[in-house]
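Hi R.,

Here's the chain you asked about this morning:
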Amino acid sequence: MRIRKILPALLITSLIPAGAGFGATWQPHINTANLRDTITVQIIHHAEPAIVSITAKKIIAHEVSLFPNMFLAPGFGEIVREPADFLGSGFIIQKNGYVVTNNHVVDQAKQISVTLSNGKKYAAHVVGSDPQADLAILKINAASRHTFPTLTLGDSSTLMIGEPAIAVGNPFGFSQSVSTGIVSAMGREIHEPNNPVPLKNLIQTDAAINPGNSGGPLLNAYGQVIGINTAIRGNAQNIGFAIGVNRLYGLISTLMNPEITNGVLIPVTFAGQRTFHSPATIDQQVVIAGTHGPTVVSVDGIPTPNLLDAYAALLNVTLRQKTVMVHFSNGTTKAYPVSVAPPTPAQIRVRRIVRAVKQIMGCTIEQVTPTLGKKFNLGVNNGLLITQVNAGSMAAQAGLKPGDVLVQLGPYRIRTLTDLGALLPRLPDQGQVLVRVVRHHRLGQGYLTMPGNMR
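And here is the predicted structure, written out as tokens:
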């Protein structure tokens, strides 16, 4: 059987030379006086202002030639870094400018811009992302009082095979492109490139999805978002996949967590309670997670009719505040203290890895990010920057120097501190271990000589 690749619906352009979020407040109607004014026409007219095109500037690295020096690495050449625009789609789900898209659209982006249907362009930044779910939430960088139109999130658990589906996005840079079809199947599972965890319980649709559609909405016949377009089947026709919107809704408290996003600890977690009335009415309220009420009506005086508004209010909190005031439907108010967030388990693991590397290899390392790569002109957007090498250490004997970026240990590619942390316990007690680094935009290699007393 011939296997075809699953491709994210993301487009890379030519290289650059070196309502209220959830409530069902609007519904289309059958216009018998004008048959051209179809349900689809009305939905697009209503939804278009909340659908955006996304441009993520990233760096593409190419190895173009060998280099004849002591850092010779057979089969590897000079790394040439070229900026490129990755095009994707998204949609606004909260009036302050919070946008949903796929993680693969904005992952490792040095710069993100969002263009509205009226042509206005804004810078944006990532608020939270989940690579395994392939979802991300961006925040449009606009004046605090500026508000944006939003789309309503529907329910992906009640979808029917054969019901209408509308995909809107930015395929091949053609913004606000519309395609229609049906829900072809439910519960699909695919494997995306660079995502070790398969995406499960996906919606399959025959509405045309093309590169650049990634992150755009899949709408139902009432204009509600039922999915986030994410991938297509390569070499096939009209086989596209979307992440069910309920998956997004379940991740809001994580993707918009002020502790992770702003380093602000607020000891309160909200939960959304939604009730669906067929065919398209949604009742919802916000409560404290783990309770059945009373309803949260405002946070610091900001109304919270839905879960997104509640977390948007929490993301406004700064460390200058001592408390956050949460007001409830029964007339009570509770103050929650504001403090600096303690290190997360991931941060603690990172610190342990850094200490282990210094103890074993004799060098200090730092995770490379797109910002760090640009600041120091490293030539890569991931890997581990070596900031210090102890004299006489294993790293020094291998020829490693400050400014090198560690990208390979033994046969394994190193992109993150987690990668290296998983490999350290597996280093042999004796012998030599290949190490590859990027130095001055070139890839070279050396060997760590193991001392024979690792354990």
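One quick note: Residues 345-451 form a domain with the Pdz3 Domain fold (CATH 2.30.42.10).

Cheers,
M.
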